């Protein structure tokens, strides 16, 4: 192991306002989960101002649901594309709690450094991470499996004990929304959240996070965890946020956004359809933006068949760096830890 070592959206300033917001959320969760919601607010104009257990030696988590420091244990498969892996490492480190101490685990097949002399002469991925200083406050641990089957190892590992979050590459050439065999298997066979990214440039070169929230995803038990993680990413990379929702009532989403810890600068835009979203992105987005969509497993609250085509849509819009974030399988008891306590 190697040790390598924001602006406010809308601050809730008084106890009365906070009580009102929390009461609104409780009622929304009680009456809205599992049912379609109706758009009720006035129209908001669209536009931008710009299994069996694994042999992997992962220790069990010591934290409990009462802990307020949210530091996910992140697993990142290493696929041989070192440059992209380094970008994913930067994103994974940004998703961690800045004061947390959980390591980032890199999982590869075979022995690190390769089997022939040429491969052994190449710097290891951990050496390159250290050289670039991209994990200055994160412990990096490496694990290797000899089977050559990363998917099987990830799926067999009990996610509730070993991994809070999987971060991996997104193959936009795949027909399915999940893109890539490993991602498909993990989404289908485990409840863990899985964040897929294709990063066309260094994360430090990104200029804005554009977040797409499909309709009804706000009723999913993994919603607040995903919002927390992406706010964390935005804060660490110093990215302003534009949120696109498929309802006229953007204030509803602004309220839910503000219930989640971490303050970031964000604006909210309403779009009427995926076609309108695509058209808006074609004219408003920039190639240096990071475009991320929240996704759920099929048949869960918030599932939208359009998610199957999101990879194709993203190929046609300006942002070259994109992400698809599958929420933790619906687990309402888990979400409270991501909400403000005062």
Describe this structure in words.
With 342 residues, the protein is of the alpha/beta class. It folds into two domains: 6-32 and 200-338, Rossmann fold, CATH 3.40.50.11100; 74-190, Rossmann fold, CATH 3.40.50. It is built from eleven helices and eleven strands. The protein has helices spanning 15-32, 82-95, 117-121, 125-132, 150-156, 159-162, 181-189, 223-237, 250-259, 274-284, 310-315, and strands spanning 2-4, 74-77, 104-109, 138-145, 165-169, 194-198, 209-213, 241-245, 266-270, 290-295, 321-326. The protein has an eleven-stranded mixed sheet with strand order 1-4-3-2-5-6-11-10-7-8-9, sandwiched between helices. Helix 2 links the parallel strand 2 and strand 3. Helix 5 packs parallel to helix 7 (181-189). The longest helix has 18 residues, at 15-32. 39% of the residues are buried.
């Amino acid at each position: 192991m190697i040790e390598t070592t924001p602006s406010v959206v809308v601050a809730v300033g008084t106890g009365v306002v906070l009580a009102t917001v929390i009461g609104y959320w409780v009622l929304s969760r009680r009456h809205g989960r599992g049912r379609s919601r109706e758009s009720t607010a006035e129209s908001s104009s669209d536009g931008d101002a710009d299994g069996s257990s694994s042999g992997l030696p992962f220790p069990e988590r010591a934290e409990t649901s009462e802990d307020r420091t949210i530091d996910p244990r992140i697993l990142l498969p290493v696929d041989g594309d070192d440059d992209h892996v380094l970008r994913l490492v930067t994103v994974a480190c940004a998703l961690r709690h800045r004061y947390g101490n959980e390591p980032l685990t890199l999982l590869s097949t075979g022995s690190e450094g390769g089997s022939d002399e040429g491969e052994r002469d190449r710097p290891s991925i951990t050496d390159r991470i250290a050289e670039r200083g991209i994990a200055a406050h994160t412990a990096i641990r490496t694990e290797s499996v000899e089977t050559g089957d990363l998917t099987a190892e990830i799926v067999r590992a009990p996610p509730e004990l070993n991994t809070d979050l999987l971060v991996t590459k997104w193959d936009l050439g795949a027909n399915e929304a999940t893109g890539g065999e490993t991602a498909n298997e993990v989404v289908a066979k485990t409840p863990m959240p899985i964040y897929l990214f294709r990063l066309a440039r260094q994360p430090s070169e990104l200029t804005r996070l554009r977040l797409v929230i499909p309709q009804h995803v706000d009723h999913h038990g993994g919603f607040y965890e995903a919002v927390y993680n992406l706010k964390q990413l935005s804060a660490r990379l110093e990215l302003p946020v534009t949120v696109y929702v498929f309802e006229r009532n953007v204030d509803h989403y602004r309220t839910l956004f503000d219930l989640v810890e971490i303050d970031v600068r964000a604006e909210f835009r309403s779009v009427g359809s995926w076609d309108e979203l695509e058209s808006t992105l074609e004219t408003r987005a920039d190639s240096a933006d990071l475009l991320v969509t929240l996704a759920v497993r099929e048949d869960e609250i918030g599932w939208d068949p359009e998610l199957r085509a999101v990879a194709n849509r993203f190929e046609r819009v300006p942002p070259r760096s994109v992400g698809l974030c599958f929420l933790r399988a619906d687990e309402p008891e888990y979400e409270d830890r991501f909400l403000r306590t005062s």
